[in-house]
Design a protein that fits this description.
The complex is a heterodimer of chains A (about 240) and B (about 325).
Chain A (H helix, E strand, L loop, with lengths): L3 H14 L1 H25 L5 H29 L1 H6 L5 H20 L3 H10 L4 H27 L4 H24 L3 H10 L2 H8 L5 H27 L1
Chain B lengths: L1 E10 L2 E11 L4 E5 L6 H8 L7 E6 L2 E2 L4 H7 E4 L11 H11 L4 H14 L15 H13 L5 E5 L7 H14 L4 E6 L2 H7 L2 E6 L2 E6 L1 H7 L4 E8 L2 H9 L4 E8 L3 E8 L5 H10 L3 E9 L2 H10 L7
Parallel strand pairs in B: 3-8, 3-9, 6-7, 7-8
Antiparallel strand pairs in B: 1-2, 1-4, 4-5, 9-10, 11-13, 11-14, 12-13
The chains are: A mainly alpha (about 240), B alpha/beta (about 325).
Amino acid sequence: MRSVPTLFVREWKSFFFSPTAYIVITVFLALAGYFFFGNLSFSRQATLRPTLDVFAIVLLFVTPIITMRLLAEEARSGTIETLLTAPVRDVEVVLGKFFASLAFLICMLLPTGYYVAVLAKVGSPDYGQIISGYIGLVLVGCVFLSVGLLCSAATKNQIVAAVVAFVALLILWILGALGQLAQQQGLKELLEYIGFFRHFDSFQKGLIDTRDVIYMLSVTTFCLFLTVRVVETRKWR
Amino acid sequence: MIAVDNLTKRYAGVTAVDGISFRVGAGEILGFLGPNGAGKTTTMRILTCFMPATSGAASVGGYDVFDQSLQVRRLVGYMPENVPLYTDMRVREYLDYRAKLKEVPRSKRRKAVDDALERCWITDVSTRVIGQLSKGYRQRVGLADTLVHDPKVLILDEPTIGLDPNQVRRVRELIRNLGEDHTVILSTHILPEVEMTCSRVIIIHNGRLVAEGTPGDLAAARDGGSFVRMEVRGPARQIEDTLRKVPGVAKVSCDEAAGSCRLIVTPKEGDPRTELARVVVNSGWDLLEMHQEGASLEDIFVQITTEDRGGKE
């Protein structure tokens, strides 16, 4: 695992070399600000809950754009060949890239901490709930990023990677939403468990439930595991 | 240093490499020769652990490329065809990153990068962004990358493509120098390159190994090993007939040009030059030029790779 930091740093720098990073951050923060302002002036409650809910949906659109380049571009430009013939394990490559994208996501979320200051100014928000909300957001971000990374590993085309990742996430989301509508108890449970929405929602309630944490982390780990496998199969093709 | 045994690689329906075996000793420079699609790149990719073989075994420095892939990769510096690089990094930054990946210890890293920059004479562009460099510079950045961890084995896939003649000459010189304490495999289809730099040559065609030996061996092994090229001023037809009767001459072909004729004389054995010269002069013609040529690697290459699967040694 010694090479992970090296790979992380390269990936991190390369995020900020392309204009995509700045556009993504700008769009995200513009949307975030708009929804924060809307929610605050509409509900007149010192809470971030509706705002963080919307963040999750914005992230659904944004994370595929963050991850699409990661492995697809290496394959397209052929740098995967120099990368994988250096003494690094495939796992290290995948982890380096994943953590770089996660750092980028956190970096994108950081300026929204300002909203907490605004809330503190106009009322007395529940900090515990806000912290658990952000933890939920970062965890759901991990799920999104790992799905995106998996899609990026499977193709040489960034656009394909982004679209497939987006569709996959949308399906995960819709499954959860369908679960809420389902009549049959067993089906309802199943759908709600598979979809990430209910798991995310409990964080927003201020509840850090190990079941939800495990859900998020296991989906992430599973996707990263699959990504490593896909990187491996690229050699066999 | 490198041992390849009965290596076979099949892609869906296509056999790219078909039962190749060879050995490369320490300090050898092996030229890997073949037309496009012969299986050169595939073999190199297997040796550098980028892809596994379908069957057969290969080892580098005693480590198996499949089972001990990390150890092999530590030993090998590999420059792929077309030299893929991160176009968004600066040259020094890139080499530093690669040195880290290749486990060059921190204390030696700066010197390793400096040395690589200098060896490939790209110190002047070390702060430039790779994407803005010309093809020749990129090629050399790729070469610097393969050298940065001072690997025992260098595997270079068409290292001189895209370089101008001066750079080509310098890269060949560099490879020759590296050959003194490294084991080098280089693939190419530029034949003079092999004759100039390699101590041994392997020719592969359609995934099979069709010839192996030093450039000299190969030349001697093929029929029509050497011939004499002459230019004589005089009546063409008469000269041709006369020379054909000279003892030791097997074949004469004549090409008539303004006032003189160019002849290619194939000897049966030995060196017929003294006799030829005497005959020409005694007949009162002017001998303008005469020299002996060995069959070049190019002739051998063309001969072998155009024969349909034949010529297997």
